[in-house]
Amino acid sequence: MTSLILSAATRLILPLMMLFSVFLLLRGHNDPGGGFVGGLVAAAAFALYAIAYGVDRAREAIRIGTIPLIGIGLLLAFLSGMVPLFGNRPFLTAVWTNLSLPIIGRVNTVLVFDTGVYLVVVGVTLTVIFAMAEADIEEDEED
Amino acid sequence: MDMLLVLPIVIPFSMGIICIATWGQRQLHRLIALAGTSSLLLIASLLLLTVQQDGPISTEVGNWPAPFGIVIVADLFSAIMVMMAALMGFCVVLFSFGSIDPQRERFGYYPSILFLLMGVCGAFLTGDLFNLYVWFEVMLISSFVLLGMGGERAQLEGAIKYFALNLLISAFFLSAVGILYAITGALNMADLSLKLQTVKQPELVPVVAVLFLVAFGIKAAAFPFFFWLPASYHVPPVAVTTLFSGLMTKVGVYAMIRVFTLLFTQQVGYTHGLILVIAGFTMVTGVLGAMAQYDFRRLLSFHIISQIGYLLMGLGLYTVTSLAGTIFFMVHVIIAKSALFLVSGIAQRVGGTYDLKKLGSFYRGYPLLAVLFVLPAFSLAGIPPLSGFWAKLVLIRAGLETDQYLIVLVALVVSVLTLYSMTKIWAEAFWKDSPTYHEADIEQAVEAIPRRDYRLMLLPLVLLASLTLLIGLIAEPVMNLALEAAAQLRNPDLYLQAVLGNGVRP
To answer: How much is the pTM?
Structure first.
């Protein structure tokens, strides 16, 4: 039951939504936004893709599995907390460098933490959505 | 110093993360779990040594200064508890290698255990009341997964009861924290301890104290909130039951001890008197419940409750000796009770059931298991020279010193009844002839277990059983440690200094 309108629209909307989610992630430090909402928007984008093209195609589009995605996200957040320990400062202290990059601004551990949150949210949400969508398909096949 | 304090949380966390990133790889997960728990054990002993030498230490997470930021703090009691958590984690992971089915291992059994350990260590180490709540939740989520994993009918039934009760705890806990924050404007426990002495509405303090008592009482399975424990603890695999019995209720008791030595010490006669009454009823109902049981694990589950009573008795008496007794008892009961659960697991693997009426002949068919049962069982009943004897001796002496003869009498009677229960297991599972099989069948069943699995199951049991004997034989260093930890609890100046620094009020 693929709809031409939906799949054509998805092809347009998906990149926009991904771009918007990254925008939210980067904006989050001082303005409304951040890893959590950014992650939700990205997850919504992939959920839309799954509705338009099926769960299998969506899984392929993400390339790595959704559960390892959670792992990588947690790892990033965790490592950002470990960095200050090596400078003899307490766990999770924000570390800011003077190195400045375009768009991102000064390189810091807060953004790494937020990116971790972003990936965890994408991973968790999609794990749930895909599992539910696949359970539906199984039931349909049984009928 | 900062590193050492966060490592007990960070190690299981990072290992759990690696497990998630490598989802579904059984062998790798086993390796990671072993590495995680053994390094946790190492770090926990290092932490214990450091705290013993330097006194309580603390670190401010994220470099936000106390009392506004969250502090991680270890006094001697915390360090001892982290040590016990690490020991339990290590033993249970070893036992799991030999006993957990590949299906569970593939579906995230080891990461759940690691995250559970992280939650437990976090709860033992945090110096912030709200953060304690968060660690409770971390623990709960992992324990739900461990309890429900496998999806057998009985398991889900047990998990639902457990889940419902724990949501209730969270609600109580959170409201209590909320009210406390409204009265004092503080969440840091050291800060609260000072502010509660000069609070504007002192009449609200006992109300909050009782709310905490209820929340932690449910968690610790104290009277009259114990009913969820025997309804849910016998359903998961025995390795999980062991971990739960060793750690989950003890976290409740830990939180209670922390709160009622640091925060609510204004009206000791009321609050600690109440705890003493609860302690007495908990002991009696637990042990009476156990008498009616003929399921190996259910019987032991009721005994968890009865032992919780002894732990609370030490808190209720509220002297240095009695608190030391509680700490010693905590160490003893975690070790002895876990050993008994592991025995029940092996007996089930060999005999095919947890039903004591159907089991039997183990004494002649499997004498090694009989020895490994007798040590922790006698220890639990309080027979010298095992660890339980010293634990009970100190508690009873503390009771006599404070003229609380009634609770002493209850403790002694319950001790005898515990011995009766242990004798029942002995008579049913070990002594009598089984109605369903012969002793030769037992030998065969033992032979039939793959050698590697068999050794992995026996190793943690031997370790725990010899520990309970060892602590009994050289009780003095352990007792001194407990006394020192109790002194820090009874007079929390060192704790306050570690958290708030030297410049802060007396």
So the answer is: 0.93
B211: three-class secondary structure by DSSP: helix
CB contact under 8 A, B60 and A92: no
Of the CA atoms within 13 Å of residue B139, those in its CB half-sphere come to: 28
For B296, the token pair is 């190996």
In the predicted model, is pLDDT for residue A11 greater than 80? yes
* DSSP character at residue B198: G
pLDDT in tens, A104-124: 778 888 889 999 999 999 999
Residue A101 burial by Cβ neighbours in a 10 Å radius (0-12, 13-18, 19+)? exposed
Q: Is the pLDDT of residue A31 over 90?
A: no
Domain of A114 in residue numbering reads as 4-142
The residues that bridge with B58 in the sheet, in sequence order, are B73
* Cα–Cα distance measured from residue B294 to residue B306, given in angstroms and rounded to the nearest whole number: 17
> Which amino acid does the sequence have at A48?
L
> Which residue shows structure tokens 């559960």?
A67
For residue A90, give the nearest of B17, B23, B63 by CB distance: B63
DSSP per residue, B265-329: -SSHHHHHHHHHHHHHHHHHHHHHHHHT--BHHHHHHHHHHHHHHHHHHHHHH-SHHHHHHHHHH
Interface predicted TM-score (ipTM): 0.87
Dist. CA B17–CA B13, nearest whole Å: 6
- Measured between alpha carbons, how far is B252 from B258 in angstroms, rounded to an integer? 10
Residues 2-61 of A with CB under 8 A from B: none
Percent of chain B at pLDDT > 70 equals: 99
In the three-class reduction of DSSP (H, G, I as helix; E, B as strand; rest coil), residue B480 is classed as helix
Tokens linked to B295: 């399921």
Interface contact A94, partner B, CB < 8 A: yes
Total structural domains within chain A: 1
pLDDT in tens, B27-70: 999 999 999 999 999 999 999 999 999 999 999 988 888 888 89
Q: Which residues in chain A are closer than 8 Å to B17, comparing Cβ atoms?
A: 71, 74-75, 78
**DSSP state, A92?**
T
Query: Do A91 and B23 lie within an 8 Å CB cutoff?
Result: no
User: What gap in Å lies between CA B285 and CA B413, rounded to an integer?
Assistant: 12
Q: For residue A96, how many C-alpha atoms fall within 13 Å in the half-sphere facing its CB?
A: 6
Q: Which residue has the higher pLDDT, A101 or B354?
A: B354
Name the band, by pLDDT with cuts 50, 70 and 90, for residue A1: low
Measured CA to CA in angstroms, residue B248 lies from A32, A56, B334, B341, B468 at distances of 39, 40, 11, 15, 20
Tell which B residues from 38 to 67 touch A, by Cβ distance under 8 Å. 59-63
For A72, the closest of B6, B21, B72 (CB atoms) is B21
